[in-house]
Amino acid sequence: MTGAIRKNFASDNIAPICPEVMQALQDANAGSAPAYGNDPWTEALTTQLQSVFNTPLTAFPVTTGTASNSLALSALVPPYGAVISDETAHIATDEGGAPEFFTHGARLLTLPSDDGRMNPDAFTDAIARNRDGGIHSSPIRALSLTQATEWGTVYHPEAIGELAAIAHENDMPVHLDGARLANALAHLNCHPAETTWQAGIDVLTFGATKNGAMAAEAVLFFDTPHGNRAKTDFQRRIKRSGHLWSKQRYLSAQILALVKTDLWLENARKANHAAQRLAHGLARHPGGHLPFETQSNEVFAVLPEPVVERLEQAGFLFYRWYTPPGMNGILIRLVTCYETEDADVDALLAAL
Length: 352
Ligand SMILES: Cc1ncc(COP(=O)(O)O)c(C=O)c1O
Known about the structure:
Helix content is 41%, strand content 15%. With 352 residues, the protein is an alpha/beta fold. Strand 5, helix 8 and strand 6 (203-207) form a beta-alpha-beta unit. It is globular, with a radius of gyration of 20 Å. Residues 64-66, 69, 90, 146, 150, 177, 179, 209 line the site of pyridoxal-5'-phosphate (PLP).
């Protein structure tokens, strides 16, 4: 325990910058360095990410997940095309139309699922229906998956592989929104390559902000035919959107601080551990249940309204989520992060 109980379970974006990232920013703040990504931190970041993923790749740091996802998609689909994702995907629900804006009007098509993980049969069927529309439809030109998903579940590498194979058979690149990739990896306990390029991912939004950075994500293009094609002129897309930082060293230094050791995975493990503790406690509440298995750092629970109110009155912050018909109670979302302590979780469980 390091002090006051943290009552904020609203998001992993609420956490402060982790000390190692703060120190890296301080260390980077010495002397002059070449601008616009020609600095040693950006070079070291690329080298380090190649080692982490065990493959050649090209990395472009940007400040937000929305920019990272939207710019990545703009390199994958033409304005008359469509991107397909799960209906809960951040690109479809929480990016304020940025993917449509950056792609110059490409459509987002979404598929329903049981738990945020796309069903391969539904995907195959959607491709067939889309094709039937001929010239009148927006052709699906990219698949976008999210790992960990918006319901806190995690795709196994084989499941990603199956979906990516369908996409590739249909000449579609595959994008992965990895805002919480570290949490997924901490759960899977597999090599980062297995759930990304080896499974067929061409372009990855590599998340760092939720995992201890101040504001930094990176668009990674893997050494695949689609990845190599899409990265052409990507720096121009970043520039044109106003996202090319002249002092890029401060972006790269943040991500580098996380990936130069296993810190990014350690942070994710801590967040996942807190989520497991929370999930077990919530599931034990007589009136509650967990509609999805907790596999990362997001916990969804259905609790009776008076219990939710009690937690709110006790000062705990979390989101009341849209509760689908048939769920008896209120669906809430609680998110843990790298600095959530057992005592923070236990305080919430005690307030139940
Ligand atoms: C799955 C996912 N992708 C991307 C983002 C990035 O969003 P932002 O633009 O707020 O950094 C988020 C943030 O909540 C997210 O949950």
